[in-house]
Amino acid sequence: MIEHRPFAGLGGAHHGWLDAKHHFSFAEYHDPARVHWGALRVWNDDTIAPGTGFPPHPHADMEIITYVREGAISHRDNLGNQGRTEAGDVQVMSAGRGIVHSEYNLEAVDTRIFQIWIMPERRGGEPSWGSKPFPKADRSGAFVALASGMDGDEQALPIRADARVLGATLKAGESIDYRLGAQRSAYLVLARGRAEVNGVALQARDGAAIRDEAQLRIVASEDAELILVDSRE
Predict the structure, then answer these.
(1) pLDDT at 179
(2) 207-216: buried (b, 16+ CB within 10 Å) or exposed (e) per residue?
(3) Predicted confidence (pLDDT) per residue in 15-50, tens digit
(4) Which long-range contacts (CB under 8 A, 24 or more apart) does 8-14 make?
(5) Does residue 104 sit in helix, strand or coil?
(6) Cα–Cα distance, 112 to 122 (Å, whole number)
(7) Fewer CB within 10 Å, N- or C-terminus of the chain?
(8) What is the pLDDT of residues 22-31, one digit of tens each?
(9) Residue 42 in contact with residue 24, Cβ under 8 Å?
(10) Beta bridge partners of 44
(11) Other C-beta atoms within 10 Å of 121: how many?
(12) What is the pLDDT of residue 137?
């Protein structure tokens, strides 16, 4: 089963400095049919204006993965962590028992991110933050684990969930396969380009909610950048 979720049909809000689109219920947008997908709770497609951002605010008991599509995001938290994550790279914050952080676009251009929240296996624990570069050339024609709590993904940023976030780039006409295990669900979004997943056509920033599909074949109809979350049901 593959449910196509076109970008034009997503929830969202425009706050002047922030143009936010929501694949799942978030803030003032609520759709009882789109509360979560497996352990995936939030997928926000955010455009943040230059010199603006999210002032300090708290989180707890959530794995928060930020994939930077354009520009850069600057992080600071009450643990003393700080860093700047550029386009194509990833940061992970394990909120644990509680953390207060801020995220700002300190660049001269818009910053565009996917922010992905995954429910952890257990509540509590020490909060943490980390960032890592993932050159797009390394994921040309192949999925690379960007953040993961699953065995075998030691090069990925760690998360405390039975889930993984993967990235890949495809040239027009190229294809990639992914095996989805039993009692697993997947959510696929194109950061750019066009592609088909098991024959379902997707455009840039569309989502595809997937379950009961043992094998995924993704075929790019034009150069494409893919982000896939694989999580327990």
Answers:
(1) 97
(2) bbbbbebeeb
(3) 999 999 999 999 999 999 999 999 999 999 999 999
(4) 10/45, 10/207, 12/45
(5) strand
(6) 30
(7) N
(8) 999 999 999 9
(9) yes
(10) 22, 115
(11) 15
(12) 81
